[in-house]
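Morning!

This is the sequence you dropped in the shared folder:
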Amino acid sequence: MILENIFPTPIWQDQLNCDLYLIKQYILSEKKRSEGRKLSNVNGWQSDDYYPNVLMDTPICQFITILEKKLKLCFQDYGVSTSPVISNLWFNVNTAGSYNLSHVHTSCFLSGVFYIFAKDNSGDIVFERDASSQYILGSHARDSTNFISTTHWKYKPKPNMLLIFPAWVPHSVEINKSQEDRISISFNILQS
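The structure's back. Tokens below.
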């Protein structure tokens, strides 16, 4: 029998080589300046949106430059002929006990996260199937290690790790059980 994987969900993963110390210091200084906002985050801090042009004279510039190159490869894999545009970025500082509820990113094509600082037990990012698939698979297929039948797939955050994924894929972040902050940059991508 032939197995064909139709409607695959791409998740791109890469290990970058950014100067994380400067990026971390910049994010922590922004946290001191702003109360942030509450969206999917519980107990953690999330900045308001930033736009790439505002961050070009900051330590975040190095990351943005690398991200733009990586996004072109994602668009090629998808067969999209337009160019990627970073629509917005925001910073996350998830303290001990904080987490993110399940959510999607509306009004964009791709989304992603770049980890600046993460210790063991600081909370995996969890991708989920849509509700109807979860219901049916959860009732019949119980192998959570098989990527064909699993209803959830996890990635353990590591410093300098980049993940890019379709914006419509539900995802959450597990509770930070470490005593150190998990620091990341999240972003949304549009087509030009």
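Headline: The CA atoms of residues 21 and 128 lie 32 Å apart.

More detail when I'm at my desk.
O.
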